[in-house]
Write a structure and sequence with these properties.
The complex is a heterodimer. Chain A is mostly beta strands. In chain A, the strands form two sheets. In chain A, strands 2, 4, 5, 6, 9, 10 and 11 form a seven-stranded mixed beta sheet that branches. In chain A, strands 1-3-8-7 form a four-stranded antiparallel beta sheet, with no helix packed on it. In chain A, a hairpin with an 8-residue loop joins strand 9 and strand 10. Chain A is globular. Chain A starts with a strand and ends with a strand. Chain B is mostly beta strands. In chain B, strands 2, 5, 6, 10, 11 and 12 form a six-stranded mixed beta sheet that branches. Chain B has a four-stranded antiparallel beta sheet with strand order 3-9-8-7, with no helix packed on it. Chain B is globular, with a radius of gyration of 13 Å. The chains are: A mainly beta, B mainly beta.
């Protein structure tokens, strides 16, 4: 089955630690996105990538970093500079940057110890 | 800039009641409009979409009509079920290629 997978489902971060959230898709989509979801705030865009080896900052990129070395993969690193990382993180993809329909993974919940 | 405003929740209904969740937007040009649904602990699923004025998107008994004159895309269902309990997000395709702008979400709870 084609789709988007995110791992792990739950992730715990200690103070000062960087953690990486995985996002993989086998839909052959060019564009990929990372969102952060907090209660009552909807989804906020962190980073997006329209093509391999290229990515742009979204609205809340500070404290996060990404890479796009392969079409299928778009990992997100939450760095120690992100002071309030507790949230639900959602990865999405779309066929290309002109196709607005996005397909979402199941999400990763990040908690701070 | 591009933005979406949707009805504050939570919304609580009895089974078989009529549902309306309001959504209005601000955008330049002629954006596509979407409704996504999120079940507890899961990612978002596309529920329906409309790409131009007067289009009606529909799926699983839900409908929404793209009204350019009122800049609205209200979600409706004639008879809700307990299984419809979820968070519903309105979104618009923005002026930046590929970007979606989401509303804050509306929590719907349906009681038997």
């Amino acid at each position: 089955d084609g789709g988007i997978t995110q791992s792990p489902k739950y992730l715990f971060r200690k103070e000062g630690q960087n953690v990486t959230l995985s996002c993989e898709q086998n839909l052959n989509h060019d564009a990929m996105y990372w969102y952060r979801q907090d209660p009552g705030q909807g989804l906020r865009l962190i980073y997006y990538s329209q093509i391999v080896n290229d990515f742009q900052k979204g609205d809340i990129a500070e404290g996060y970093s990404v890479s796009r070395e392969k079409k299928e993969s778009f990992p997100l690193t939450v760095t120690s500079a992100q002071k309030n990382p507790t949230a639900f993180y959602l990865c999405a993809s779309s066929l290309d940057s002109e196709s607005e329909t996005q397909y979402f993974g199941p999400g990763t919940r990040l908690l701070v110890l | 800039g591009d933005s979406v405003t949707q009805m504050e929740g939570p919304v609580t209904l009895s089974e078989e009641a009529f549902l309306t969740i309001n959504c209005t937007y601000t955008a330049t040009g002629y954006p596509s409009l979407f409704w996504y649904v999120q079940y507890p602990g899961e990612g978002l699923q596309l529920l329906l979409k409309a790409t131009k004025a007067d289009d009606k998107g529909s799926n699983k008994g839900f409908e929404a009509t793209y009204r350019k004159e009122t800049t609205s895309f209200h979600l409706e269902k004639g008879s809700v079920q307990v299984s419809d309990s979820a968070v519903y997000f309105c979104a618009l395709g923005g002026s930046t290629l590929g970007r979606l702008y989401f509303g804050r979400g509306t929590q719907l709870t349906v009681w038997p």
